[in-house]
Amino acid sequence: MTSIPPLIPAAATTSTTQSRTPTPTPTPTPTSSSSSSNTYAIISKPNITQIQFGPYTLKTWYGTSVYFSRNEGHELGFKDCERSKVGVKPNKDNTSTISNADTTLDQLDSADHDQMSNEPWLDKLYVCDYCFKYTDSMGQYQQHYQYCESLQKEFVFGKISYRDSKHTIRKIKGSKHKLFCQNLSLFTKLYLDNKSVFFDVDHFQYFIIYDNFSLKPLGFFSMELLSLERNNLACILIFPPYQRQRLGRKLIEFSYALSRSQYLISGPEKPLSPFGLVGYLRYWSDVIGRLFLEKGVLANVETVTIDQISSITGFRCEDVDMTLRYMEVLFRSDDTGKDVVLDLNRLKEWAKVNHVDSGKSSDMIENDCLLF
Ligand SMILES: [Zn+2]
What is the Å distance from ligand 1's center to 276 Cα? Predict the structure, then answer.
């Protein structure tokens, strides 16, 4: 059973239009694919030229068909539903809500689109930077801001799971705030190529990071409620205007803090995207490197096993192993040529050369601020 497709127009004043060309950076970015096997969203290149995202005009990084109708060329999918009047309920902000999930998902399944076309499908998509509702009409976009409940404090939803002097992280259940999570997922696909869950959000929870003094989401990660592999993260994205502030690292740290609170050795869903892999390797190597520096808990050990590093950090053994190989601190024993041995001196040297004791690699999540 598939769930309700998102729809809809958003609105808002586009005050200062700030052009940016987002550069994919390893730190706060994307990661893994999600568990669904949906493939209909995959388009070989960006098919929406620009996104108006609050005051920011952004280029998209990846193509997506899930915003579009299957039946009406390259029109937005919700218009299809408005025409057919399948369970459409007009809202006061000139938006709509579809109630017939199966019909609509089928309508939105655009596998038949001409994916080889060189023409963009849409010149500009307007996306509310508070609730992620969308439209191709600037007028509707501007009108939406007058009614968008996400701009009003009394309508803020989600349970606060973390709050320090700068940021708040809220937990939002996909089953409870379906439309928000679906629209968030659709937007994410523009910047995370292997994002594959758009509508079936019931089985996920979403951790959204906010500046303490704003209701505007800066980024998020999703997590499966029942993960057989006990993954602590399904996908992660810091929205383009807010990247390069180390928010991705903060969310990754938070995901491990969450696992530790449940006494779990855990990690992200695999396979990781290339960007996700780079981000995680940096994080894992920083944390592991610090264990062996002067004040680290393993500073004075003469031998250590991957299991020990795993239990101290909460990282999976396979991730510790991959990180040590990335750091090039493993070698084969001279005696047998089979045993792999960790070269502690080389590891400490790696940590110093790569400045893992600097402020940049220090913890960003404060344990006292965890609220779960
Ligand atoms: Zn909105």
Answer: 28
